Every structure is written in structure tokens, then in C-alpha cells.
Amino acid sequence: MKTAVAATLLLAGTALLADTVVKRGAPLSDAKPTPLATVLASPDEYLKDAVLVEGVIENVCEMKGCWMQIAPEAGKPGMRVTFKDYGFFVPTDSKGMKARAEGVVEVKTLTKAQADHLEHEDGAKLTRNADGTAREVAFVANGVELRK
Length: 148
Known about the structure:
Distance between the termini: 31 Å
Order of helices and strands: HEHEEEEHE
Shape: globular
Structural class: alpha+beta
Number of strands: 6
Strand content: 35-45%
CATH architecture: Beta Barrel
Oligomer: single chain
Radius of gyration: 18 Å
Largest sheet: 5 strands, mixed, barrel
CATH class: Mainly Beta
Number of helices: 3
């Protein structure tokens, strides 16, 4: 009997943890999410106003959690997400979690050295120009929510 009760409590606790939402930064608005694939296809259309996106975390800074790479689906191209004013971080073990992020899209050209660093040190997936530079679609989040 005690074993059955303990097993039930363990399963209930695991279910609660699975439903836990990790929140960082500012609370997210109730705006309808814009598909991440849409933002990636036309990033210049999302440079001025905050946008809410959803995706899966493909990679994360394992030292501090100071950035994450999110994609529409596992294995698809995505974008690098940093956090406004370096004001918050995500858990360093959040790779594979579902993410909702609200913030502003940035499009920038990285130098060859910057692109090398992001690829070799951080595991970023970039499309390089002939001269070694790369165009990066990035996102500066005001707030994020993560779920398992």
C-alpha cells in the first residue's frame, strides 16, 4: 500500500514538473504569436515593433544561459535570441524545451571573426557570404516562457 501511494505521488510530482512554465524577463503579452517561420522568411517586416514568437530551443549557452537558438521545429533553421540589456538568462539545460519569446527582430551583418566565434564557440548555424561574413537574423527578447 505504501509503495503504491509513493509511486502515485512520484508520478503526480513528475506531471507537475512537466507542466511547469519557466518565466524570465517581462511578462508576455496576450498577443497572438507570429509563426517563427514567417518571421524568418521576412525578418525586415518585424524590425520596428515587438513580436511574439514560439519555437523549440535548439541550442543554449551552457555557461550562463545568456542566449538561445530557437527554431520553428527541431532541426529547422532558426534564430539566435539574446535578452534585453543582458537582464536575465534562461536555464543552461533548456535545450529541447518549447519557448515563447516576445521582443524585437534584428538583422545584422557579422564580421568573419564574429561568425567564426558564433559557429565554433556557440554552435550557431549561419549562412556565410563569400567573404566569410554572415547575415544574422537575431531576436532581442524582453521576456520568455519555457516549457518541457
